[in-house]
Task: inverse folding
């Protein structure tokens, strides 16, 4: 596992190694967006804003929207397995005793799991 600090260490090369594709938007502003389609026609659009330390996940099946999730104050992304495109991130909202963990797998099938626990 490799831990990457979003604000200072996450770069286009790291994301290219994880997603195996170029971003679908210009990354000059600090925002990168990647779109992946798996063998079941599930589409994941993953956006990360390095400056604001936010992550957006948009999932659809074919052209049908399924879910959109947005997370703020993401300090680190843990790259678990580049071959399967597995990574995770977590965050705790300020002044809260909650901790949310999200895991994503890109290959061979897109999988997203998450949990929120109290500290």
Result:
């Amino acid at each position: 596992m490799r831990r990457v600090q979003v604000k200072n260490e996450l770069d286009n090369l790291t994301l290219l190694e994880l997603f195996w594709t170029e971003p679908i938007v210009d990354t000059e502003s600090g925002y990168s967006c990647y779109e992946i389609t798996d063998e079941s026609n599930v589409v994941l659009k993953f956006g990360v804003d390095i400056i604001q330390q936010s992550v957006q996940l948009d999932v659809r099946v074919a052209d049908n929207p399924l879910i959109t999730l947005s997370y703020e104050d993401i300090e680190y992304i843990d790259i678990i397995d580049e071959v399967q495109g597995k990574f995770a991130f977590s965050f705790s909202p300020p002044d809260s005793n909650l901790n949310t963990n999200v895991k994503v797998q890109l290959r061979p099938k897109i999988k997203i799991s998450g949990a929120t626990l109290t500290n």
Observations:
- The longest helix spans residues 12-19.
